[in-house]
Specification:
Elements lengths: L1 H23 L3 H17 L7 H12 L9 H20 L15 E8 L2 E8 L8 E3 L6 H9 L15 E6 L11 E7 L10 H9 L3 E5 L8 E3 L6 E3 L5 H5 L1 H32 L9 E11 L1 H12 L3 E7 L8 H6 L5 E6 H4 L2 H13 L5 E6 L30 E3 L1
Parallel strand pairs: 1-4, 5-6, 5-9, 9-10, 10-11, 11-12
Antiparallel strand pairs: 1-2, 2-6, 3-4, 7-8, 12-13
Helix pairs in contact: 1-2, 1-3, 1-4, 3-4, 8-9
Length: about 400
Amino acid sequence: MQRDRWIEYALFAAVLSHCLSMNLSPNHVLQTLMVNAEVALAFFHLWRYELIPLYVLAVMNAGFLGLGMTVPVWFAWLQGTLCVLGLLVIWLFPLPLFPSLSSSHPSVGCTTMRLNGLDCRVFYPAIQPTKAARTPYLHHGRHLAIGLNKFVPHIPQAFFSSFQNGRLNARLNAPLKTAPSGGWPVVVFSHGLGGAIEMYSSYCQYVASEGMIVVALNHTDGSASVYRNPDNQTFQYYDRPPASALADWAGEGYFIRNRQLKKRAKQMQLVLDAVVALNKDRSSEFYQQIDVDRLAVAGHSFGGATALTTAHLDKRVKAVVGLDIWMQPLDKEVVNAGLAVPICSIISHGWLQWASHLETMQKYMYKSQHPQKAFLAIEKTRHNNFCDLPLFSPVRKRPPLYLTNKLRWRRL
């Protein structure tokens, strides 16, 4: 993607230079060279419809080649307008750069499968080198943008269109690397409200490169931005609670979210069941490659609450990682019990300001009995910095957690 970015910048610079030469010092030979340069760059360029203003401008400029006439004022104004639009698009919707993988296992594979009826994206250490193509970011295609628009109606679908340009570092269906003695540990990851299996891919592929199998599941409780129906042809989108639930959190609001949470935890357990079954399935690539005694759960926001609930219910879970865990929908018995397994809870600077919620989280961590526990905050971060959204546009609260050069941690 870095190479594609530089080619895109070079194409914009070539078109801009062409515009300037046409207006300042028209020269047939120079313009011919510039058109040839633009054609060459366009050949290697990653075409995307967001750059239509730039393409139109390049074609218009080429149309003047050989006419030997002065550029009209109206045409110069049109050139300037299209240049500004092209620059804005490149800035607002850059080609996404995903964080580099760990050097521990620098080759990671990615495959999508249904586990006990749930769509899952699986990341795993892969054989190196591999000729497999980089995995397209989108699993749901245009349906993810539709679902995100239902989750945040004030943001148009077109704003999420740049997702289609994403290519992960993980390689599509690359061969699984033979596990070390005992098998690969597994992390099952749960998305937050309005999330989907795509939206934490930078996190999941990096964890896989540290030597783990990571299974990101797509919940079907109505909290996901989109999920695929069992027919594999139709889709369901985010199910927004009624306004009355938002106004009455202690009553209707809590009831709705708590009911969803219990369904989510059951789905996470179903995925754990499927992971154990894969390890016993001779026809599976994961046969005897999984360490079923090292199963962990993780999640962001509502997904963090799902991970805590699952760990409370399922003794197979040996560790929990929570990113901005949403404590409000949890059962009181879960909050009061704490955890008996290792837990790492990381919160953003934004949620650090939520005093009542922070107090609940601190009490929960205090009650967790295992000596290996950590409660950390990352300064200058917001709630969505834990997902992939900031990778696709600077207006989505960039820079994201994974691209921040200097992270400042606070132990709470």
